[in-house]
C-alpha cells in the first residue's frame, strides 16, 4: 500500500467513524485523481497529501450535510467543487476581509425612494429573463468581488436605459480605483464613485480581466457605460431591497458568506451558519421568488464561475431576519 493509501486510510478511520458504512478508500482515491484532472490541480508530492486530506474532509462534511437535506432538516445541499481541497483557513481567506456592518456602512440616510403605493410589486422577478444580466464571471484568486458586484449592477442599469447588454470591465475598476485595494478588497459604492468621476468604464472586451493588480489602462475611446452615482436602500430592510430589485434592477449587496457557502450546490441557503451583522463578500441580487414549499429566496449572482453553485448562482433565504446580512448594505448604480 502506497503512502497516499496509508494517509487516506488513517484519515477515514479517524473522521468517518460516525458513518454506518465508512467511505471506500479505493473509490475516494480514484475520485481524488479524477478531481485533480477535472479542475487542473497540480501539486508536489508533499502538498498532494495535504490537499488529499482537505478533500476527504470536505467529502465527509458534504455527505453529513446532505444526509440532513435528504431528511428534510436542511433547505440546501452541497457538492464537491474547485474549493473542495481547501482548508478552513483558506476558505475564510477566499471570502476576503471580514467587517462589522457598522464599520463600513456610510453614515447618512438611504437614498432609494420607495415606489408609490399604486405601483404593483411582483411576487417574483428574475432579471436574467429580461436580458439585464451578463454571463457569470470568475474573479479567480483575487479579492475583487466588490468590483464584480458593482459592474453587475451597472450592467443591468445600462441595459434598462439603453436596451443594450454590455459586459463591462472589472479590471478597469481593480486597476484604476485608487480609493480601494484592487485584489485586496473594496466596496461597490467606491467603484460607482470612481466610474462617475472617471466619466465611464471600459468594456470587458477592451479591458479584459487578469485577476491581479496592474497599472491603470483606462481608454476613454472604449467606454462601455457611464454612471453618475449610486443609491442605497434602508439598512437591514429586506422589503426595501425587494422593492428596489423589482423596480430598479440588479442590486449589489454585501453579505456574510460562511465556509459552507463555498460548497453550495442547490436549494435555498438558509443562513444558519452565518454571523449576523458581519460582511465578507459582495454579490448581485438579480431577482427573488418563493419555492413551492413556501420558502422565500433571493436569486444571487456570484463571481466564482459558472461551475460553482447553480451555474454560478445561489438562492439565499429571504425574510429570515436579514439572513447573512444581505440587506445590510445594498447599493446600485445611477446612469
From TrEMBL:
UniProt GO molecular function: cysteine-type peptidase activity
Domain of life: Eukaryota
CDD domains, A to Z: Peptidase_C1A
GO biological process: proteolysis
Domain annotation Peptidase C1A papain C-terminal: ranges: 121-334
Residues annotated as domain Cathepsin propeptide inhibitor: 32-91
Keywords noted in UniProt: Disulfide bond, Hydrolase, Protease, Signal, Thiol protease, Zymogen
Pfam families: Inhibitor_I29, Peptidase_C1
Tagged with keyword Transferase: no
Family, similarity comment: Belongs to the peptidase C1 family.
Record protein name field: Cathepsin L
The organism's taxonomic lineage, starting at the top: Eukaryota, Metazoa, Ecdysozoa, Arthropoda, Crustacea
Gene name of the record: CL1
